[in-house]
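User: Fold this, then the next.

Assistant: Folding the first:
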Amino acid sequence: MYITCLDLEGVLVPEIWIAFSEATGIPELKKTTRDEPDYDKLMKYRIAILKEHGLGLKEIQDVIATIDPMPGAKEFLDALREMGQVIIISDTFKEFAAPLMKKLGWPTIFCNSLVVNENGEVVDFKMRVAQSKLTTVKALQSIGYDTIASGDSYNDLAMIKASKAGFLFRSTEQIKADNPDLPAFETYDELLAAIKAATAE
């Protein structure tokens, strides 16, 4: 039995923090897990910048409401779900994800949560579990699933490498160069074909 595990941002939807950076004109918020492998360090950096500029959850959610899935993403996800079970495993937050899940047809997502005070200020974040992507695929494997995984960033590498089949999707040249053993694709058709082939093995 197979289950496909996908990253969200950069794979199915644009990077939320890049969109927010562009909307607010704060270039420091463009940094993502493609640039910074240490997610804890990255989120503390982001929260400090939000505080410095007096921005809170509402301002981020207002930008998220304007974000659409990448062209072809919903069709890809629908085709993948026809083939078998799919879980999106993301380091984003439930406070961000709901509008995007609606546009993608409400797929299953495992993600984290924010700590927001009464003024709507983001003061902290709670990871669902340590090394959430790797821990999740290992848990799925422990209940009898072979996992297939795909993502674009540093924080996806562990789940990709731990899976029966794993693929980079629209990743950076640096990550691809550092991981030449991982097949890397740029289109949904290529990724769908690779996943289909892996499930047929």
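Now the next one, as you asked:
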Amino acid sequence: MLPQLMQQASQGWGWLVLVALGTAVVSYLLGCFNGAVVVSRYILRDDVRGHGSGNAGLTNFYRTFGGPLTVVVILSDVVKALVAVLLSAWVVGLLCPELVPLGKYWSGLFCLLGHMFPATFQFRGGKGILSGGAIVLVLDWRIALVVWVGFLVLAIATRYVSLGSCWAGLSFPFASAFVYRDLLITLFAIGIGALVLWKHRGNIVRLVKGTESKFTLHKKSAPAAPAKAPEEDKEGDA
């Protein structure tokens, strides 16, 4: 993508910078719409971040509340990611069709940043697995196959959602490098994968120690204890 990027830049940096900044801001703001927080705070009147792991992700929401509203959380996190990437692809395609794959990775990175560190919710968001998984689906079917199959196999076989999530973060850069064989795309993929692994650093430690919690079907229980600090969370939330 570097030759195409340089060629486009030579024709005018202004449009290139404007599109890059515009898609980054829009993607980040879309990412800030956190389904778990919105549903729990404004529909259930009980912030999900005050329960369980304290993480604003799908797994913690499901563990805490369960029910049909979990589907709303899933749809909101999937749709925002798809809109961010597809909108960016459309805009970049108008400027330079050859840069569309790079534009998808660019917008995907900022959408995940918004999901993980939402300015609208005190920068306390989710871990990006659900939104990241949706982004992968519109990049390339081969990358999606590697990431999703590995995630599902590990999560189902071991019941450690966090283990499948770590596979997704680790395999994504390698799959992207193999498919596109492009330095810039690989660098963006490394950034996305690194964010996912960083958000799961506590889970990785517990997996090594053998103290990580396994995923179970939702059961109604007594109110959970107040959440600990984000770096001390207990679940492999999405």
